[in-house]
Amino acid sequence: SLKDMNYNYDALMDILNDDFRNLTNRILKTFHTDLEIKDFDSSENSRTGKPRLYIKASYNEKEILDFHLFLNEARLSALSLSIYFASILKMYEIAGDKALKILVLDDILVGLDMGNRLNLIQVLEEYFSDFQIFMLTYDKAWYETFKNYRKDKNQWVDYELYKHNFEITAPNGENYNVDKPEIFSSKNYFERAKFYYINKDYSACANYLRKEAERLLKRLL
User: Fold this and answer.
1) Is the dihedral of CA 90, 91, 94, 96 positive or negative?
2) For residues 119 and 30, what is the distance between their CA atoms, to the nearest angstrom?
3) pLDDT in tens, 196-210
4) What is the DSSP secondary structure assignment for residue 34, as one 8-state letter?
5) Which of 38, 63, 67, 152 is the least crowded, having the fewest Cβ atoms under 10 Å away?
6) Can you give the pTM of this predicted structure?
7) pLDDT tens digits for 33-53?
8) Beta-strand (E) ranges in 29-78?
């Protein structure tokens, strides 16, 4: 009934503006300390007549009008990610301890700059430490950065997937080019240096030792 729908919607708004908003803002502060959700509100959709949910936000403690036009792509991405992560955490809180905790992130970081991508690692370590996480990306620079900056490296297994083209001969004698995926366990710079040293490719070994030295210096400085 309409009465029941209104009651359930009011209950939803109470939940959104209590624990859920607080959790979202805590996650959001990991990305941006100057952005905050002040309120979840609703209005009637002029076309359908049904309630429509929207966000009231502030920037540097000043309310933003039309924040989707005011904020840049990085802040909008941080806002949407924070809401997304808070939704997942609340969902598993409701589902209970028997729920299978899996988080799949398939290149959702396109709108984030590198600084906020590093902040994402902090979010995952702080809020999703008991989840099994699958991080998928085509961005090689971010892939290497993620491997180097996460704290507990022993909890992760890294793989690289490449497409190789090779030629096959069909039963009719015609040749065709076919794409074949190849997946293999990823090695860090030092492991690659050891591999090339064992195989007596000393120039390649020296190159990866240089990369490892640069990585360590960047992390320290």
Assistant:
1) negative
2) 6
3) 999 999 999 999 999
4) T
5) 152
6) 0.74
7) 788 888 888 776 667 767 677
8) 35-44, 51-59, 62-64
